[in-house]
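Hi everyone, sorry if this is the wrong subforum. Our group has a chain we'd like a structural model of before ordering constructs, and none of us has done structure prediction before. Sequence below.
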Amino acid sequence: MIMLKTALTAALIVAAFPAVAQHDDSSSAQLQPAAPPEAAAIQQAAMAFGQCVSAGVQALDAAVAPEPGAAGVAAGCASERDRLEQAAQTMIATLPEEQQPAAREQLRSQLAQVETRIAAGIRQRREAPAAAPTE
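Answer:
Right subforum, don't worry. Here is the predicted structure as tokens:
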């Protein structure tokens, strides 16, 4: 379940600020000040969303199919998702104007895949015990 939370968090954070993800000059990174407050807000919102999704998946009845289960979990975490989207939009607004449309599209695309990723996480969670050796 940690992998699902981490994957969602990483995907949404990367989608939220692609310019940071593409920047790999380690020497200048060492000279840069601490992350802006917008980045911290994204991280906090992403963690809250990931925790909500994780708890929702864990509480999901085994009889519920992955897709409807994912839709239910996503609906139950709508306020956390909205906070994450708002934090990402705030960060995107700080990017140079020419980068904002691409960043918004990446964010939209990532958020559109949330239910699919949750469903995949549900399947993975359910298959994990079946793969374990029995005594």
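For your construct planning: The radius of gyration is 17 Å. The chain has one domain: 2-17+38-129.
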